[in-house]
Amino acid sequence: MRRRQMLIASGTVVAATATGVMSQPSGDNALLTVAREPGSATESSTATETILSGTVHETTVFERDAPRDGPTAMIFGGVHGDERTGIEVARDTTEWYPDAGTLVVVPETNRIAVDENTREGPEGDLNRHFPAGKEPVSDLARGIWDAVERYDPDVVLDLHRSLGIAGVHQQYVGQAVYHSSDSYGDELASYLNDVAVPWYMPLHRISARRTHSGGPLLFQKAIRDLDATGYLFETTDFMLDRDTRNEHTRLAAAKTLALHGLLEVGNN
Amino acid sequence: MNESIRRALASPITIATYGVLVVPLAIGWFETALLTPLALPGYLIYVLGTAIGNAISPGLKLKFYWIPFLVGCYAIAVVVGTIYDVLRG
Ligand SMILES: [Zn+2]
Questions:
Q1: Which terminus of chain B has a lower count of CB atoms within 10 Å, N or C?
Q2: Single pTM value for the model
């Protein structure tokens, strides 16, 4: 009997591992290749800028202009310093080459919080510092907002990570795209469900959720004051390891740029 | 111990059911890429368990639901093992 139970157990392990390798979602290497390939890079120009320089919040902004005209997209990571997936993926995107328009990236928006690996910096939760009808309420928020106004982005994407899943765990917001009404939020969510979320993790499917622009979040202020198309992407660390969270987030960033014409898919 | 209770607690069907619910999910826990369709029953029990738990007790970290999950799956496995035994006569 022991032997039989051992066989059943080890058979389950082998079968589970084998089917796992065979049934992975496809991902989208074509899109990520387009994002990473310099293309006509000789024509594209890159620049970095230090904002809030000379202050404790000093952080770097990366700007890459494509040879062709197009929209300006701004990507933020590290608005919450312990949400490493947004920071790591935003750092990745500083190496991307848009085919049109301008890509502006702030990988470590709340630099002190990123360094300390905490959600908030000394001034509190940066993503509550942009109330409607008022100036941003902290030095950091004002400095970030000054930069945003200068770049005047058409598209804003803020990268986050939750501890649970929106619609499943009532106090959490993970596996969701929060988006303005003029956005491709539904397309983005269904794309991610196609290429990144396995069918056998149905409760991890990514939902598209329309945001109002009246709240105190950075992307809501961009929607409200600059008429930008806004997205806030939340993955989750609930049952997703670091590589998977980063892949979901990386594909969300690449697809957002593609949907807004910064990346040309199909030409490479 | 009563033979039928002993069988229900540790029959091959009970053990196999427990393994099917727990093992594929445990493998995927270590690496998401190793999660498979075989994990679906355990996945649904685990995630829905955390959803109910989170609604009742929002402060509790979701990873602590492994303990009730392991106990709950064993209870389900015992029920399956018992039903199998009864049907077989
Ligand atoms: Zn966040």
A1: C
A2: 0.91
Residues A163, B37: C-beta atoms closer than 8 Å: no
For residue A176, the cross-strand partners are A207, A234
Distance to chain A for B56, nearest Cα, Å: 10
Mark which residues 59-88 of B lie under 8 Å from A by CB: 61-62
H-state helical runs in B1-89: 3-10, 12-30, 40-56, 66-88
Segment A201-253, tens digit of pLDDT: 999 999 999 999 999 999 999 999 999 999 999 999 999 999 999 999 999 99
Q: Is residue A78 part of a domain?
A: yes
Report ipTM for this prediction: 0.91
Q: Measure the CA–CA gap between A51 and A151, rounded to whole angstroms.
A: 12
Contacts of A239 (CB under 8 A, 6+ apart): A201, A204, B28, B29, B32, B35, B47
Q: What is the identity of the amino acid at A59? A: T
pLDDT band at A268 (very low <50, low <70, confident <90, very high): very low
| CATH code for the domain in which residue A138 is found | 3.40.630.10
Q: How far A190 CA lies from chain B's nearest CA (Å)?
A: 20
pLDDT digits (tens, 9 = 90+) for A39-65: 765 667 789 999 999 999 999 999 999
Contact A65, A44 (CB under 8 A): yes
Are residues A203 and B20, on separate chains, in Cβ contact within 8 Å?
no
